[in-house]
Amino acid sequence: MPRIKTRVGIVGAGPAGLLLAHLLHLEGIDSVVIESRSRQYIETRLRAGLLEQGSADVMIETGVGERLQRECLRHGGVYIKFRGELKHIDFQDLVGQSVMIYAQQEVVKDLVAARLGYNEPLMFEVGNVAVDGHATGTPSISFTADGKDQAIDCDFIAGCDGFHGICRPSIPAGDIKMFDREYPFAWLGILADAKPTEEELVYAHHERGFALLTMRSPTVTRAYLQVARDEDINQWSDERIWEELALRTAGEGNPLSVGKITQKGITDMRSFACEPMQYGRLFLAGDAAHIVPPTGAKGMNLAIADVRILARALIAYYKSGRTDLLEAYSRTCLKRVWKVQRFSWWVTQLLHRNDQDNDFDLRRQIADIDYLTGSRAGRMTWAENYVGLPMEWD
Ligand code: FAS
Ligand code: PHB
């Protein structure tokens, strides 16, 4: 069986795996990235849409952000709509930062182009991936590519293979603890050829359920509706979707802008984290280690934060022989992970209707949002979490 020797074996070519490979490459540290899907699939899969300023800065400062700078929509705030009122949270005024609308698949395209551009190993459509030896100091990754069995011998394995990947499950049950919370609702998401209704995002609380109006460009709307967990997408005609979005976002501001729906799908919601995020020479990053409800627009950004911490630790190991940052990896990441879990849970329970809630809860939620938007301290707490908390380095 052909054996590839490299320093870091990376499982998964999502934002986490691709950015880690790029950051290591810039320091001359070789890696091999293996991905179970096709290039076309990962470059077209609809996922996140919003980058924190810190995430965008990493892309720009490491030379893969030229198109992002040209094409992203820079937003200095968001709108919160409730009881028909439209309230603005001004990030520039509150924290002097912005967020960037730039879809995850565009981030993936930029990182794949860079990787292939400097001709570093990136293998698509691999199968039968298994990791081994991470506890004994001789890590290896076995897989099939083009029908042939292959293996990677490496110093470290980066498990960037998402929530359903094989890396986290390779950690013995007694050496890892899972924290999990499911939600009794999901998001029905659409992509539509429609000008965005407002120039920034609109998070709408309504007694019928949550709605979010976001976008991909000045002519493409992305929107989400809270629906039941087991909702059948076939029950949602385009007309019904627009009608429900109009009901939930009615009130102050522009009338809902509509157009041809080009994609629709349902995404379940969960909060998940595992501790620790490492085992021997295996390091988990991104969705392989944690999942947050998308309400706070944190999933991809948290993956990028993990990778910045892991890259710094691996670079310190190879450049200076330091092991302290690798040993502290989980602790360093989890400080941010749990603050992002808190924020993502908090905005989700603030804005979504829970069918166990009664009229008291509805009034309490409205008062919560009324306080949040009416108080500078309240707006500040949304702003500083939403644009991205400062990185905490060990
Ligand atoms: P990813 O899941 O992106 O990447 C993991 C990669 O590993 C995938 O390409 C997968 O094919 C590959 N892989 C899996 N098993 C493998 C194996 N055995 N061998 C090799 N490769 C393997 N976040 C937001 O911030 N905002 C949103 O609106 C949002 N919407 C989302 C919608 C959906 C449907 C989903 C599923 C997630 C959404 N997220 C959102 C979260 C999402 O953006 C993640 O946080 C982000 O993709 C995390 O990146 P990675 O950790 O790289 O994981
Ligand atoms: C998106 O643009 O897909 C998006 C934006 C903000 C969120 C969730 C999703 O909170």
CATH superfamily of the largest domain: FAD/NAD(P)-binding domain
CATH architecture of the largest domain: 3-Layer(bba) Sandwich
**The CATH topology of the largest domain, please?**
FAD/NAD(P)-binding domain
List of distinct ligands in this structure: arabino-flavin-adenine dinucleotide, P-hydroxybenzoic acid
The overall pLDDT average reads: 97
What is the number of domains? 2
Question: What's the helix count?
Answer: 12
Shape annotation: globular
What does the largest sheet look like?
8 strands, mixed
How are the strands of the biggest sheet laid out side by side?
7-6-15-16-17-14-18-21
Using the coordinates above, name the CATH class of the largest domain.
Alpha Beta
> Based on DSSP secondary structure assignment, what is the total number of beta strands?
21
Q: Radius of gyration over alpha carbons?
A: 21 Å
Beta percentage is 25-35%
What is the CA–CA distance across the termini?
Answer: 40 Å
Can you give the helix content as a percent range? 25-40%
Class computed from helices, strands and strand pairing = alpha/beta
Describe the protein's architecture and organization:
The protein has 394 residues and is of the alpha/beta class. The protein has 2 domains: 3-49 and 103-176 and 276-348, FAD/NAD(P)-binding domain, CATH 3.50.50.60; 183-270 and 355-387, D-Amino Acid Oxidase, Chain A, domain 2. The chain is 36% helix and 29% strand. The protein has 12 helices and 21 strands. It has helices at 15-26, 39-44, 53-61, 66-71, 91-95, 104-117, 238-249, 299-320, 324-327, 329-351, 359-374, 376-386; strands at residues 3-5, 8-11, 31-34, 50-52, 73-75, 77-82, 85-90, 99-101, 122-123, 127-132, 140-145, 148-153, 156-159, 177-193, 202-204, 211-217, 220-228, 260-275, 278-279, 282-284, 290-291. The strands form 4 sheets. Strands 7-6-15-16-17-14-18-21 form an 8-stranded mixed β-sheet. Helix 1 runs parallel beside helix 6 and helix 8 runs antiparallel to helix 10. The model has no long low-confidence stretch (mean pLDDT 97). The structure holds arabino-flavin-adenine dinucleotide (FAS) and P-hydroxybenzoic acid (PHB). Arabino-flavin-adenine dinucleotide is lined by residues 11-17, 34-37, 42, 47-49, 104, 126, 129, 160-162, 165-166, 267, 286-287, 294, 297-300, 303.
